[in-house]
Amino acid sequence: MSPTPPLGLSTDGWLTPARHCPSPHCDQRPEGEISLLVVHSISLPPGRFGGPYIDQLFLGQLDPAADPYFAEIHQVRVSAHCLIRRDGELVQYVPFNKRAWHAGLSCFEGREKCNDFSIGIELEGTDTGRFTPAQYRRLIRVSRLLMAAYPAITRERIVGHNDIAPGRKTDPGTGFDWGFIERL
C-alpha cells in the first residue's frame, strides 16, 4: 500500500490531489474572512450511494427522468465546496475563495447568510446512517488543511448543516461522529 500523498491547497483555492468538477453554482464571496466549516450529508437518490448523480446535481446536469425523486430537485441550483465519497474519494466543485451555494437560509452566532463566510463539505451518506472510516480520515485531513489556511476556522466553528438551519435541515445526522473533532 502506497502512502497517501500530502494534501495541498493552490493559491486559487483548489485542493490537490482531488477530482475537480467546477460547478457553475457559485459566485464571488463578499469581503471578509472565511470562518466556518459546515458538514453536510447527501445521497442521490436518497439512501443510495455511488453513481454520478451528486456530481450531476452540483453541475446542474441532473436528468429528471433518471429517478422519480429527481423530478423534484433537478432545477435546484446548489453546490458544495467538496464531497467526500464513501471510499474517501475527494471531489471539489467550488474553490474555497468563492461562495458555494450549500447552506441556504442559515444563521450562525447571529450572523445570517452562512454561505458568505463558510466552507461546505458534503459526506456521501444519510441523516440516519453511519459514515465510513475512510470518510472520517479524509475529513480530518481536509479540516486540518482548512484550519491552517483559514485560522478563523476553529474546532468550535465546525458545525453541521442542522446547527445553522435548525428545523429546516437535519444533516449530517444522528450517525455522524462529532468525536472526529478531537482528532484535529
UniProtKB/TrEMBL annotation:
EC category: hydrolase
Keywords of this entry: Cell wall biogenesis/degradation, Cytoplasm, Hydrolase, Metal-binding, Zinc
What this protein needs as a cofactor is: Zn(2+)
* Superkingdom assignment: Bacteria
Q: What is this protein called?
A: 1,6-anhydro-N-acetylmuramyl-L-alanine amidase AmpD
Q: Which family does it belong to?
A: Belongs to the N-acetylmuramoyl-L-alanine amidase 2 family.
The source organism is: Zobellella aerophila
NCBIfam families cross-referenced by the UniProt entry? PRK11789.1 (NF008758)
Q: What start-end ranges are recorded for coiled-coil regions in this protein?
A: none
Where does the N-acetylmuramoyl-L-alanine amidase domain start and stop, copy by copy?
23-173
The compartments listed are: Cytoplasm
Q: Which Pfam families match?
A: Amidase_2 (PF01510)
Q: Which reaction does it catalyse?
A: Hydrolyzes the link between N-acetylmuramoyl residues and L-amino acid residues in certain cell-wall glycopeptides
EC number(s) in its UniProt entry? 3.5.1.28
